[in-house]
Amino acid sequence: MNPLVVDHSGWNRLLKEHVDERGLVDYKGFKKDEKELKKYLDLLSKNPPSDKWSQDEQMAYWINAYNAYTVQLILDHYPVSSIKDIGSKIKIPFVNTPWDIKFIEIGGQKYDLNNIEHGILRRKFNDPRIHFVLVCAAVSCPRLRNEAYTADKLDRQMDEQGRDFLNNPARNDIKKGEASLSKLFDWYKMDWNKDGKSVAYWVNRYANTKIDKNTRIAYQDYNWSLNEQK
User: Fold this and answer.
1) Which is deepest, 7, 156, 192, 193, by most CB within 10 Å?
2) What is the pLDDT of residues 114-141, one digit of tens each?
3) Would you list the domain boundaries of the chain?
4) Which helix (H) or strand (E) holds 217?
């Protein structure tokens, strides 16, 4: 392992402790461990990715950062029933959604969650599987994996997330002749349809039930309720 790369074991321990096998989060537990979360975020803040890092090392860093800072954003406003409720609470000029709050500091620069997702991960790495691993604290998101992403396991982890997401009927209900897909496949069509691939390619790569050009496709409503353990 590159000695310059951030150690994600602190985040890994928190995920093991406070996220179940369904990807649901014990936010009350995270609240009790908030000092440990902030210690990890401080590590991220002081150690931004370097060009000397491999692509997978950089991707793992930014994916973990997105997910960890999202948890911190929820904790900052907890209790909430949805991340979208935070947008109605904030009173910051020109900031309309929780994804536009510049509460993240990395390497002396201020970021919001949109900067990480759209400005870095989508723009720089050209891998639509990021949509299987970024979790915006909503029920319809992919499950929050209860382990940190690391460069040595990243490709396998992303593929596992793809299989989990596509074969969960609450997120993608696929039957012979018809499919009710996640809105992520609709919102990010331009990502899925790059490099000669398509939505059907990505669905068929991971789903147990395949689709073809005759499959009737609809998109599910997105459930923005908090991904919290009950």
Assistant:
1) 192
2) 999 999 999 999 999 999 999 999 999 9
3) 9-154
4) strand 216-219
